[in-house]
Amino acid sequence: MTRLITHLRHVDLAVPDYDRQREFYAGVWGLTEVATDSGLSFLAAEGSPEQYVVRLRRADDKRLDLVAFGADSPAEVDALAERLGRAGVRLISQPGAVDTPGGGYGFRFFDIDGRTIEVSADVAVRGHRRLEAKEAVPVRLSHVVLNSPDLDATRRWYERHLDFALSDTLSSPRMGEVMHFMRCNPQHHSVALAKGPHTSLHHISFEMRGLDEYMYGTGRLLRAGVRMIWGPGRHLAGDNTFSYFLDPHGNTVEYTTELELLDEDTWHPSVHDFSRPEVTDQWGTANPMNELVARESFNDPDRGVFVAPPV
User: Fold this and answer.
1) pTM score, whole prediction
2) Are 289 and 174 within one domain?
3) Burial level of 287, CB count in 10 A (0-12/13-18/19+)?
4) Of 214, 239, 255, 278, which one has the greatest count of Cβ atoms within 10 A?
């Protein structure tokens, strides 16, 4: 199918302890700071053509500033803005020049839960490179998972307005459906929606070069004393590896690799019972999924709901 949104670009965070977060992401986590500007830090992944995959902003309150997606052309940006406007979606800005590294043409709007979403095209491609064997830093941004208090309403909104498709669902006999994996391209998911008590960031995931690099990176973080809350293991839905850590402000961040690519013409979504251990971790190497792990992923209630970031 033809979609106006093509891929995930970057995830932007507001952080009270800006210097500590900057040191974490540009240090042990393995991103590269490519630009700074008055309390803003733009961090790239070495293997990614995106200008940056994480933006940090110095702020009094912790919040998710925005999630940014790409489109193929300014015409498709305009078409999406017109569609959302007709449907009554609250636009934060009209399509125009994007004033961040790489420039481009885009606009912002609120999703159903009040998160700020940006869609842009014509962003300059960043010079990037092929990572070498044993180089255990992120190749690119893999996906973002968002907590929603009304899981199915949020799924329907992303399907209707942004053309995301459902890849798979996690469910259990006791809790019902708890996560929808959503795609905007053949990657199993660029966004996942998790059932949570409030609107918040669940986690941000970064793709590593391969299994060795994923494990080397996991080991580097453990040796540095970064708290790992779950992993290392391999999920069934998406077939990707996982090691989940907490950044200095309690946001969950993940190293992953080998996320499944789908044949969209033949794929049919499945409902996986995550109460079965082999669903959450095929390998059986990770600590069990339990309420403590889930509670960490709920994160703090987002203070940016229906409040656009200042930049």
Assistant:
1) 0.97
2) yes
3) middle
4) 255
